[in-house]
Structure formats: structure tokens, C-alpha cells
Amino acid sequence: MIFIVLTKRKVLEYIVFLPKMIINVMSFTGKMNLDEYFKRIGFHGSYDKLDLATLKLIHRQHVMSIPFEDLSIHCGEKITMDLEVIFNKMVRSSRGGWCLENNSLFGWVLRQMGYDTTTLGSRVFSSTGGEYHTEETHLINKVIIDGNAYIADVSFGVSFQLWEPLELISGKEQSQAPGVFRLIDKGDMWVLEKTGRKPEVPNPEFAKSSLLDKKQTQVMYSFTLEPREPYHFSQVNHDLQTDPTSLFINKSICSLQTPTGFRALVGWTYSEVTFKPEEGVDVYDMRNVTDDELEEILREKFNVKLQKKLQAVNKKACYTL
Questions:
Q1: Which listed site, 9, 46, 68, 88, has its alpha carbon 20 to 30 Å from 200?
Q2: How many other CB atoms are there within 10 angstroms of residue 285's CB atom?
């Protein structure tokens, strides 16, 4: 039998060490888990069947619950590709994120559920320059179900946001609430384009707003089927939040899909958009807001709660709703 004699100093050391042990246990139990994510997006169903119906449902719930936003840049926060940081931010802290965050999180969710999921990179098309970005700045996911491939993208935002995954079939018109999407196989790459509807703007003050694009068919981005790892986007993730020419440096953006359309806050311009496919238009109810209104609008309209004060920005840069 061995007796351990504790001195007063040792007793004090254990007393100091014990809370650290408790904290470590608590942080371990706070690891990412699907239940928290499903609660965040309001998904209450079963995911025993890894079928297309379930994928469509969680895809739709995600875009209706977690905003596309770049507000961290304008709050003095750094955006990281660390998945645990992303989970804590978007699932536990009532925030959204841009594509590198949203689609990374969504890809993790799909893999945890058991879906055959591959990360892909895409190059966004510039309508002003008439060419694709030189780098793969947009992250998307490919999902295989029963031998069929689908493209899942929960983070392009505004009127270009997919509500459901697209079947990877060239030339097929796939109608969703925001419009008609088409994936086109160009041989060395795939291209995603969308045909929308004419904007109807009740407020004459915004009839000629630069946020409106009356071109109904637009190319969104191109991609290849080459798998990508998270580190592939590390440099792009840094550049997009530091390069003075980056769209996200020049505009503070937050958008969230709704059952009837979407909401968007770009700088100080708040928009509520209603899709009216039966009339061939989308109604853009737009107005300017003050700095004092920003926090309330983000909380009430987007369920976004910022820890630091937002410095709204709306400098000249090509961006349309």
C-alpha cells in the first residue's frame, strides 16, 4: 500500500489545476456536432436516408437561416478557414459568412451525415470585365447520390442564390424560385448561368440604382471537377479581406433568403425583394438607412448579432442584387 502525502503547496496546486480540468472537459464537449447545426437551421427531420429529398431540404433551410455576409471585415475581425472557428461563429454566435465559410461548413455537415461530398473551386465571372476571375475565389460542393452528381452552393447570396442543389447535367434548365439555372459543360470546365426576371422598383429614388441589373441572363461562375482541399483557398481567403480592390473590402454585404424572396443590406441600402414569377418580375423595395438603424436591422431582419460595431461601407465596386 502506498501513501501519498500532500503538502499545503500541492493541495493549492490541485485546487488551481482543477478548474482548468473542468474547462478542458467543457471545451471537449463543445466540439462541433450536427444537432447544433440542425437546430441553427431549423431542421427537425430524420437524416437516416441519404437521399436527394433530404439534401434539398437542408440546403434550403441553410440559405433561409444563415446569411451570406462579409461583416467581419467591417468589424475589425479576421475571417479564417479554421472549421471549428467557422462553426462557433455561424452556428453558436448567430452570424453568417461568405462562401469560404458557408460552403466549408455545409461540406462538413454533408460528410458527417454520410453523403459522398467533394469540395470544388470556382472562378466568379465579372460582368464588367467580361471574364472570369484568375483565381478560384468561390468554394462549392459536389454531392453524389445514387450515381448522380449534384452541385450544392449555399453561399452566393441575393438573387443568384441556389435554393436547392443543381443536377450536374449540361444544358438542363432547372427552375427554382430565384429563376432558371443552367449548368453547361464546356469541355475543359463547367459554367453556371442564371436567367432571372425584370426588377420592379416601387421607390423611384432607386430606379437607376447601381445595385440593379436589368440583364436577365448572366454567367455566375465556372468550375472544374478537380477536388480541392481547404488549404487551396488559404491565400484567396487572405487576399479577399486585404486587397484594396476586393469587392468585400469596398462593400459591407449581408443577404438572407426568405420564403418569398430575399433581404439584403449593402452599405446603408436595405432591400426586401419579392419574387413574382407569375408576373415575370421581382419587386425590389429599397430604402436607405442610418448608422443608428444598422444593428437593429441586422438583428431583426437577418438574425445577425455582432460583437463589435459595424463600419458600413459602400464604395464604388461592381455588385448587383
A1: 68
A2: 16
Q: How far apart are CA 258 and CA 273, in angstroms?
A: 9
Q: Per the structure block, which three cell numbers stand in for 12? A: 493549492
Residue-level pLDDT, tens digit, the chain, 321 residues: 333 333 333 333 333 333 333 333 333 336 999 999 999 999 998 888 899 999 999 999 999 999 999 999 999 999 999 999 999 999 999 999 999 999 999 999 999 999 999 999 999 999 888 899 999 999 999 999 999 999 999 999 999 999 999 999 999 999 999 999 999 999 999 999 999 999 999 999 999 999 998 889 999 999 999 999 999 999 999 999 999 999 999 999 999 999 999 999 999 999 999 999 999 999 999 999 999 999 999 999 999 999 999 999 999 988 999
Report how far apart the first and last C-alpha atoms of the chain are (Å, whole number): 76
d(CA 308, CA 141): 31
Residues classed as catalytic: 99, 138, 153
Residue 250 · residue 265 · CB < 8 Å: no
> Beta-strand (E) ranges in the chain?
68-69, 116-126, 131-132, 138-145, 148-152, 166-167, 173-176, 179-185, 190-195, 198-200, 217-223, 253-258, 261-266, 269-276, 281-288
- Using a cut of 0.85, tell me whether the model's pTM lies above it: yes
Neighbours of 3 (CB within 10 A): 4
- Distance from C-alpha of 83 to C-alpha of 99, rounded to nearest angstrom: 13
Neighbours of 307 (CB within 10 A): 10
The domains found in the chain, sorted by start residue, are 34-302 (3.30.2140.20)
